[in-house]
Specification:
Largest sheet: 8 strands, mixed
CATH architecture of the largest domain: 3-Layer(aba) Sandwich
Radius of gyration: 23 Å
CATH class of the largest domain: Alpha Beta
Structural class: alpha/beta
CATH superfamily of the largest domain: Vaccinia Virus protein VP39
CATH topology of the largest domain: Rossmann fold
Amino acid sequence: MSSSDPRTFAMAKEAILSMADDGTTMEKMQFYDRWAQTYEQDIDLVEYCAHKQAAAKVSAHFSGDRQAATVLDVACGTGMVAKMMKKEGFQHFVGVDGSDGMLQRARQSGLYQDVKKALMGDRPIPVASDEYDVVVITGALSASHLPPKIIRELCRAAKAGGFICMTGKADGENRSYKEALEEEMKQMEDEGLWRKTVVNIDGIEPDATHLKPFCRLGVGAMSASERTFETARDVILSVHSSTSRPDQIHFYDRWAKTYEQDVELIEYRAPELAASLVSAHFSGDHRTAVVLDVACGTGMVAQMMKRDGFQNFVGVDGSEGMLQCARDSGLYRDLKLAMLGDQSLPIAPNEFDVVMIVGGLSASHVPVKVIRELCMAAKKGGLVCMTTRSNEDNLDYKAALECEMAQMEGQGLWRPIDVTHVTDWERGVTDHERGYISGLVYLFQKL
């Protein structure tokens, strides 16, 4: 088959799996040489978007002159990061990769002022120190590719005040590498080499992924105005201590402006997991489907679902502050203020192709009975997706929730499609829950 023939998901999957983790460096480079012709087609087919996420995150934090800024693209491949960053206004790129085949494609893109061949990890990256405004590496930080120590080379290449943006998988197969990588990051932070600017978890392919931009310390470094895990933890603990509904709503009104930063810091995965599960099972037209996002908050679920092709969203939340952020996102065609559980959902029955509630189902938030209204809102054959935590503090609520689900199934209201248990749902914030806590995504179809 020629490179011009259309690729399929099965072909892309076979290509990706064919690279042996235990191969030699030269064998891996030969693989990438062969793969270069169909690489971009294949990663599009598996919905890989690390390059898009990295470019967007750098763009959101870079305050300098983009037309003059110099960008070092490490493990540049065919040039997909440079393509995304050019859309954000960056123009000057230097690429480094170990594969001649990949570098040839990068040259043909016309995006790079220079490309350099280097087998990284065993030797320094062949660039001068303190030269680049932005250093980016996407896709190569894994156990089968580069050692964690390579990030010191990235930092060396950046100017004082420059950004270093890195992506790496956070799935089970890469967990040990991720821990070693973050240990190296923390050590470098302690040494005063850089400071953490933001940490995101986004779906950049079917597996969850870490996206970690850093700002190197020195003259011209950005001021430390970002949130920390400790501030996020304190905020989250305080919402659970609010006993009355008005107190909780007032809290969410105040929290709205830093909500997305804080849930990123605790590595909260529910929105992306719920959106991915719905997308995998929804067989209709994503573009015309109407989605009801209950307890929508600032719009994180809609953000994830839009990436999967959904376009029509209606949001419901009890906090005006959260709804204002959702309005500002431009994702929703309608937003409704409602105190969930205290009043009926302000929507017509049998109206929505998909109904979502992510984050609201817990002992301190929405009563279990609300799920009957979710089912009523869905069209016949529509999907209802719900999430809840399964940590110790939420076990009684989870049991009551599943009892209600089973009762509704027995009454012929819906049928279960999928239940996904996730061990690393989010980072624990209490003293007795260190590490990650678990959670569940439930998917039902209305009968």
